[in-house]
Amino acid sequence: MGHICKKLLLQIQEKRENMINSANKYGYTSETTIRCSQELDQLIYEYQLNIHFKDKQNQETHYPFKKMFLVFPDEYNDRKYEIMT
């Protein structure tokens, strides 16, 4: 897991705790609690985007190699090729 993801997870945990404390102190529908909830939603969204981007990046990097095959010249005849998959 990358540095950005770890940082976001820590921020998510902290914001979640702040939201719960706010809800217990001021109520679930208070402006403070709702603001914390919206900020938490934004952090979770950023985390999901980051994870999705990393997964997509890994798929794009590894996919071409799954379909790759190698062609080696036949040692006995220069005009024939042996295909290795």
From TrEMBL:
Q: Which InterPro entries match?
A: HLH_DNA-bd_sf (IPR036638), Spo0E-like (IPR018540), Spo0E-like_phosphatase (IPR053028), Spo0E-like_sf (IPR037208)
- Please give the Gene Ontology molecular function terms for this protein: protein dimerization activity
Q: Name one GO biological process term.
A: regulation of sporulation
UniProt protein name: Aspartyl-phosphate phosphatase Spo0E family protein
